[in-house]
Design a protein that fits this description.
Shape: elongated
Distance between the termini: 99 Å
Strand content: 35-45%
Largest sheet: 24 strands, mixed
């Protein structure tokens, strides 16, 4: 080995994670052997990760005059932070999906995630620190450190002995809100709501697995899910409403929700939402949505009745060949601007009076007349003014929201709109006297104009035509 310095060269990479060996043609056939090469590599500082098989093969194949990698270090293993594996959908979609046949799937739409007692909800996967690495020079490389997450907080669950699994303490609605895991009671009616159950008025979410019969009243502060049909009943929810079997209202059903309303179909009913309303079809109904009305699916249509939304009404077919009167209104009429100005003027007047009242109160305090009848009546007037100003500003804010939302209001017929339909955009009226296909209506200046709808691109082509 003493002569190897003239015949052997060792090259170590800059990061010391690998080393190459270079062998000059030997003076004799038995000049090189593996133990001596290993010993020589050690003298050059390479003591870890040497592949003796590579050295044997190099000698056997007489691979002289080329650099051959013969030693490799171990890189540190990657670290994995701890994480929660949620067994339920923490962000459930509130939009129904189309089936392959083009119909709308309301039966697999859920407003809330339901769990059963003792069901596994969450499993915590602990952190894994990165393993230690080592260089060919024998140096140690510390592995990356991972981080664990704090335990979940909330209510309605219990933990396994190792504190890694979270189970439902009882059946109910499960949700993750701002990092808190919560299971809350959901009221379940196994069958119909009729005279046998009586009217329902409950706190929380309600799931009715049957129908809601005529003349019944159902109210809940949370979401209401109805698997069956709603007849001529009153339904009111503090959140959303999902009616999987549709509404057959007999011109007496009233459906109201703070959040969105979803129904398989809506016929002869009044439906109101502070958000959006979606259905497969709407017939002879009064529909009021603060945001949008979206009627979609294979047979999507709006026939008869009156619909009103701030942003848009969208469907495939509006009206019918028989010329059924169908009223659709979107946007914000001009009287909203007039109303906003009226409230703004009232606020200015009241604020001027409020300033005068405040000055009078300051004067009465300075003169020591806090307990006089004048001071009491003036204070009362100050409270009245503040309350009225607050109320009017809230109304102005509401109008501003509506005006902004209705700025680009649209009525969309993806396939056809028939004569007999009457549309209103920002208060401007247009009676449909001709049949139009694939069309969108909107307001430009003081006129209603249209653009052809390009279904293949799912957007509207820009060549507009005046009506």
């Amino acid at each position: 080995m003493s002569d190897y310095a003239e015949y052997v060269s060792i090259n170590v990479d800059n990061d010391e994670m690998s080393a190459d060996i270079f062998l000059v043609r030997p003076p004799s056939s038995d000049f090189y052997n593996v133990p001596d090469l290993v010993e020589f590599a050690a003298s050059e500082g390479v003591i870890f990760g040497i592949n003796k098989c590579t050295l044997e093969e190099t000698i056997r194949l007489k691979r002289w005059g080329e650099y051959i990698k013969f030693a490799e270090g171990i890189r540190p293993g990657e670290a994995s932070n701890g994480y929660y594996d949620f067994k339920f959908n923490i962000s459930p979609s509130k939009k129904p999906k189309l089936k392959p046949d083009g119909s709308v799937d309301y039966y697999n739409l859920n407003l809330v995630e339901i769990t059963e007692k003792d069901e596994l909800l969450v499993e915590y996967i602990p952190k894994v620190d990165g393993t230690e690495g080592r260089t060919v020079m024998g140096g140690y490389i510390p592995g990356m450190k991972a981080h664990d997450l704090p335990p979940l907080r909330g209510k309605g669950f219990y933990l396994s002995e190792d504190k890694r699994q979270y189970f439902a303490e009882y059946a109910g609605k499960v949700e993750l809100v701002m990092g808190h895991l919560t299971i809350s009671n959901t009221h379940i009616i196994e069958g119909d709501v009729d005279l046998s159950t009586g009217n329902l008025e409950l706190r929380g979410d309600l799931h009715i697995k049957g129908n809601v019969k005529s003349n019944m009243v159902v109210k809940a502060t949370g979401n209401i899910t109805i698997d069956g049909l709603v007849e001529a009943a009153d339904i009111e929810a503090g959140k959303g409403i999902l009616i999987k079997g549709g509404i057959l209202g007999g011109e007496k059903a009233t459906i109201k929700a703070i959040d969105s309303v979803f129904a398989l179909f809506i016929e002869s009913a009044y439906v109101e939402s502070n958000a959006c309303i979606q259905a497969d079809s709407i017939v002879n109904s009064t529909i009021v949505a603060y945001n949008d009305i979206n009627v979609f699916g294979k047979t999507a249509c709006i026939i008869g009745g009156k619909l009103k939304a701030n942003r848009y009404v969208k469907t495939k077919v509006i009206g019918s060949k028989k010329g059924v009167t169908t009223l659709i209104e979107v946007g914000v009429p001009n009287d909203c601007q007039v109303e906003k100005k009226k409230y703004t003027d009232q606020v200015e007047e009241l604020e001027e009076e409020e300033a005068k009242v405040e000055k009078l109160l300051e004067k009465l305090v300075k003169t020591g007349d806090e307990m006089t009848e004048m001071f009491i009546s003036t204070t009362r007037r100050k409270i009245e003014l503040s309350a009225e100003i607050y109320r009017l500003k809230a109304l102005i804010g509401e109008l501003n929201t509506r005006i902004t939302m209705g700025k680009d209001a649209q009525i969309i017929a993806e396939k056809k709109i028939f004569p007999g339909a009457r549309i209103f955009i920002d208060g401007t009226r247009y009676d449909i006297s001709d049949e139009f296909e694939k069309i969108m209506f909107f307001r430009k200046m003081d006129k209603i104009v249209s653009k052809r709808y390009d279904a293949s691109e799912d957007e509207f082509v820009t060549n507009s035509m005046s009506l």
